[in-house]
Structure prediction request, 134 residues.
Amino acid sequence: MKNIPDNSAIVKIIVIMTKKLSRDYEQEQEQLKAVVETLGREVKQQEQKKTNVRKFISVVKKYTNMTQLDATILREFVEQIRVSDTYTTDEQQKRVKIREIEIVYNFIGAFDFEGAREQSQTAQDKNNAKVGAA
Prediction:
């Protein structure tokens, strides 16, 4: 007669495999829960940013035709203005002092105008290249 395992050996193998699969399943569930929590936080952050941008745009639209900047308008746009300590870039010209100014806007925070300008220029250059190639 061929080697046929008895029922108790088969049951032990099934129990071992079931425990392993169960353990793997539980680990995967924990990992997925962590991913879902992380993604949920990121979605909330993105939704908050979207809301803040909409608020900022509504303030901008409110003052589209403004002719003079006064304290009320400034307070509505600006949360704070940060001014750095003075420094010099050239030790030979100590009279030339530099101060960096960062404007933190309500709803959107500090805005990198230089970076936005560079991105806009890059996009414009690409469009010009496409038009020239056509």
Remarks:
- The helical segments are 7-62, 71-77, 113-133.
- The radius of gyration is 31 Å.
- The longest helix spans residues 7-62.
- The longest strand covers residues 78-83.
